[in-house]
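Hi! If you just cloned this repository, the fastest way to understand the data is to look at a raw example. We've pasted two of them here, unedited. The first protein comes first, obviously.
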Amino acid sequence: MTDGRFALVTGGAQGIGFATAKRFLEIGFGGVLLVDRNGGRLEENAAILSELGRVETLEGDLMDLALPARAVGTALDAFGRLDVLVNAAGNTERCGITDTSHESYERLFGVNVRAPLFLMQEALISMVQQKSKKAPSSTSRACWPMVVPPISRPIRPPRQHSAHLPSRPPIQ
């Protein structure tokens, strides 16, 4: 039996995203939308999760500026609502400051900062319309104090610093 909650999980083809989606289905979520750029692994792992419950997929790269709206729209079309957004996708590159290229910088901040911010924006709009009482996102625990409260707290989006706050920790 499901509890009627639905989640959108980026990075859902593997790692933390896959494990989170699996857990949501195990505890009774009505369905999950997995978003990932690795289409082969996405479909393979969606088949595994579909034994636990309803799984939808969307192949896409978080560097695509249109993906946040498309992902939230896909979740709403599939489920009729969105209750939880998990920004599990992430990018990392091991190099020093003198070795960081413009391309790697753009990819790191595009995937790790810009995409989650605009996914949260899209999700929050729909959650406010459906009168949700939960915050729209969770990310790495290290970022929680700077981005959005964990999903167990009421929605209190940062009003004046929503773009500024997530941009500061990398250089602190």
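Ok, and the second one:
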Amino acid sequence: MDPRLLESSTEELNAELARLETQRIELKSALREIKFKMGDIRRLVGARNAAQHMEDFHLQTTIQELRHEEETISAEQRAFPAAGLRLPYEVILEIFSFLRAADLLKASTVSRAWHTITNDNLLWKHIVTKKWEKYSKKILNDRTSIHEDSSNRDWKKYFRWCESQNLRWASHLDYLTDVAESKRQATLGRKFLARGNNNAALKVLQAANRLVPSEEIESLIKSIQSGDPSVGQRLPEWQCQHCTYINSTSEGSCDMCTLPRFS
């Protein structure tokens, strides 16, 4: 074989190998770049998926909030039609303050929302002070509006207590408040004495029989029997409805009979 031909073939082979090596390096570099770009693509896809997930989550949350708000508004509208106008609670409370106690009790059975409103302590404070308006300053110690709660009193419970007292002291055993001692007493024709305790129990005393619970009442009965004109000095000043008003100087009808007891 011709050595020149062999040498030429060797050079061509080496050149081909060099070309292949160059292509291999280029392919390896291209593959590395492709892998890098694939990593970027995966990161971008992951970020996009995460963003889509967050967007879907926020969308679902918004939908749930809107549905809840719609249900709440619908419930409020069913309970109180004006709630659709988004009235403040204070305004609704003011509207209910025009109702009487009996109407409030009926309204409390309409719905849960109305039950909450009609049992508001400030509302019942307003009802109490309105019914006994003449003595509201004594009730509160100072005049306050419906939105200024001046005490921790359960006003609805207190209203029921006052009403029960009025019922027990109805007819001939009249309701009365002793200003100094916070006790209720009444004389009927200067022959009988009625006395009420804090539990609304009544005790009627006949002067002739001297049925007395204390020295104070015994002294009063003796004074009534003897016609002592100074009987009013033996007890603190007191008032009652449709009965005798006694003090040290005068005797006449009483106009303070609707004053409830506060203690």
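That's it. A detail worth noticing about the second one: The CA atoms of residues 133 and 139 lie 9 Å apart.
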